[in-house]
Amino acid sequence: MDKATFSELKALYDARPFRPFEVVLDDGRRLLVDEPYFIGWSTRNRTINWSNHQDTIDVIPMTSVAAVKRLGATRRPNKRNGSMRRGGDH
Predict the structure, then answer these.
(1) Which domains does the chain have, with CATH numbers?
(2) pTM (2 d.p.)
């Protein structure tokens, strides 16, 4: 099985506008990255640091990352009329 590369992770992180993505680990866990500040990495790109939204950070070896996947378009209310629109569309 191919592993995800740091370059793939960084491309999703750097995308503008930012779109949520998930990091899939070898053990099947899926880590939601819904904002860019919930993930970081070591200076040599060997580990990722992921905030689990509960005031703790998990340090995960990049070798445990099976895949990184962009999530589908999000929808949020339009402030003017309350209708739904795709995230990032203006």
Answers:
(1) 6-72 (2.30.30.100)
(2) 0.74
